Every structure is written in C-alpha cells, then in structure tokens.
Amino acid sequence: MPYDDSVAPTVPRAALRRSRLLAAAALASVCLTAGCGAGSGGAVPPPSRPATQSPSPSEAENGPAAGGSPAPSKSAGRTGSPGSGPLSGRTVVIDPGHNPRNYRHTGEIARQVDIGTTHKECDTTGTSTNSGYAEARFTLDVSHRLRALLQAQGAKVVLTYDDDRPYGPCVDERARIGNDAKADAVVSVHADGSAVGNRGFHVILPALVRGGDADTSGIVKPSRELGTRIAGLFVRATGSAPSNYVGGNTGLDTRNDLGGLNLSTVPKVFIECGNMRDPKDAALLTSPGWRQRAAQGIADGISSYLKG
Q1: Is the pLDDT at 266 greater than 60, yes or no?
Q2: CA distance linking residue 225 with residue 184, whole number of Å
Q3: pLDDT band for position 178 (50/70/90)?
Q4: What angle is formed at CA 217 by the lines to CA 139 and CA 115, rounded to 5 degrees?
Q5: Is-catalytic flag, 272?
Q6: Fewer C-beta within 10 Å: the chain N or C terminus?
Q7: Which residues lie below 8 Å from residue 277, measured CB to CB, with a gap of 6+?
Q8: Phi, psi for 275 (deg, rounded to 5)
Q9: Residue 179 burial by CB count (10 A; 0-12/13-18/19+): exposed, middle or buried?
Q10: How many Å apart are CA 109 and CA 106, to the nearest integer?
C-alpha cells in the first residue's frame, strides 16, 4: 500500500538544532533509566535526526463496547507474508490507533465494553493537529511503514485493521487479535492530544491487573523489556526527546486503564509518538520523512527485543 506522502515537513532549522541537543541529552537519560536495548550491549550513539516530542495517554486508547465490537472484516487480523531473515518465524501485531471513519459512527464507538477493571468506550475518534491532520491517518501511515520494515526482516506481520472497516475495531477486539495470533510482540501506534508546550514521545506499559477477563501477570515483565527497547531506539532513529509531561523524562509510563493492554495475554505496549496539539511536534508528525524514522525506531526496538 502506498504511504501518505502528502504533507511536507515544516520544521525550522533553529528548532532542529535545539532539538538535536535536547535529544542527545534525552537519549543518555533514556539509556540510563530504561536501557537502550541496542542488541549489541554497547552504547547507542547520539541521534543526528531532527528532534520531536510526543503525547500523553489522554486520547491514546479508550475502550471496548458493551455491545461488542463491529463484525470483523476481511482486514481484521490481516497478515503480511513472512519471509526469510532474522525475524523469520516471529509474529508481530501492529495496532493502528483509532479509525479514520470513527467520527461517522459515534454511537457505535461510544458503546461500553468490559476491560477487566472497568468499562470503557469501544473506541474514540482520536485527536488531530490544529490543521486537521487526523491521528488515525497518522497511525495507519506509520503502521504501513512499520509493517514493511518488519517484513523485510522476515517477520509475519498482522494488522488489527487496515482502513477497510466502517469503525473500530473496539479495544477488546484489538487485544483478541494479538492474543489469537499468539504474537511475539504487539505495538499499538498513537499520537497524543495534550496542551501546547507538552512535547516528547512516551511508551505506555501494562500495569499488573487482575480482574474479570484481565490478567496481565504474565506479560508485565516482557512488555517492559519491549517498551524500554522501543523507547531507547526511537530516540536514536527520530532524534525525539522523551515526554516532558509524562513518565518523568524516562519515555515510559505504566497504566492500568487501557483495555488493549489489560486484555492482552501477549507482550504489548502503546507508543505515543508525539503531541499533535503542539505546533512543533505537529510539524514533525505531519512530515513523511519523520514518520519513516518513527517507524524505523519502533521496528528497531521490536527487532532488538525479539532477537534478545
């Protein structure tokens, strides 16, 4: 599928210089607190890419619907053909946050579903930049790029949906797709909608949750390993600094209120790639070149985790 290359980057040079300095310091912080997970055991060199920053958990993922998810379409659980390479035999599920058509189905996505600890909405529309670039469009584009990078390494890649259903899937179904695929790793791709000045990416990890159909006791540790590797290598690939408003500058946040994590039985994390409501972050998120680097950073983290 072609990538979305319609929006040109607009990051000022002075901002890029400041970003590189901030990101270099951030990388050192992430490596010390979370571990860069480069796979070689050595230090990861400072980034040379433009910096960015990202989101908080506010609009990342909202929840399932009491009436259940919409009927799965042909795309639910859509797989990419595995090949030969270092990730041959491994299965990765990519979950593009939200759906570009959710806004046309507000009643359906507002239905409540059980996430173990409570009930939440099936899904939300997600956020957007001030110019109207939708989070759901961003997540699909990054997910397509990420799929190609992982398939090139031989992984079997499953998307929870691929822009071919009217709304959803609901968060409980998103979790089931990863579980049914017996995925070695699942990553849910998002961008945040926070206040101006809040910048930097963060990776959301599952908390220890037991309740109803939720039991994360078997995935908390491997999910943290997956998340720390993605955080460290996302910094290196994008030049983005960890969030300045979530996670205490570690690039990591732990939550117990997201159905996609609570209901997962396989290692899973969310990544908030940036804050769409901040103009500086928005300039990065709307850049096709930066989105490719974001996909590369996530792919590097997944690959590092799967290789051990």
Answers
A1: yes
A2: 12
A3: very high
A4: 55
A5: yes
A6: C
A7: 127, 129, 130, 192, 193, 194, 195, 196, 198
A8: -95, 105
A9: middle
A10: 5
Tokens of 77: 């659980």
d(CA 250, CA 173): 30
**pLDDT tens digits for 40-82?**
333 333 333 333 333 333 333 333 233 333 444 444 455 656 6
**pLDDT grade for 30, boundaries at 50, 70 and 90:** low
Q: CB neighbours (10 Å) of residue 217? A: 11
pLDDT of residue 77: 52
Q: What span, in angstroms and rounded, lies between the C-alpha atoms of 300 and 38?
A: 8
Give the number of other CB atoms < 10 A from CB of residue 149. 18
* For residues 227-252, average pLDDT: 97
Which of these is catalytic: 108, 173, 225, 272? 272
| Structural contact between residues 186 and 258, judged by C-beta atoms closer than 8 angstroms | no
pLDDT of amino acid 54: 33
Contact (CB, 8 A) for 208 and 216: yes
Please say if the pLDDT value at position 17 is more than 70. no
What Rg value do the Cα atoms of the chain yield, rounded? 17
Q: Are strands 185-192 and 268-275 parallel, antiparallel or unpaired?
A: parallel
Contacts of 142 (CB under 8 A, 6+ apart): 96, 189, 273, 291, 294, 295, 298
Q: Which H/E stretch holds residue 210?
A: strand 210-211
**Are 243 and 56 spatial neighbours (Cβ–Cβ below 8 Å)?**
yes
Pairing assessment for the beta strands 91-96 and 185-192 based on DSSP bridges: parallel
Per-residue confidence (pLDDT) for residue 83, from 0 to 100: 72
Orientation of helix 13-33 relative to helix 220-238, angle to 10°: 150
Q: How far apart, in whole angstroms, are the C-alpha atoms of residue 287 and residue 9? A: 4
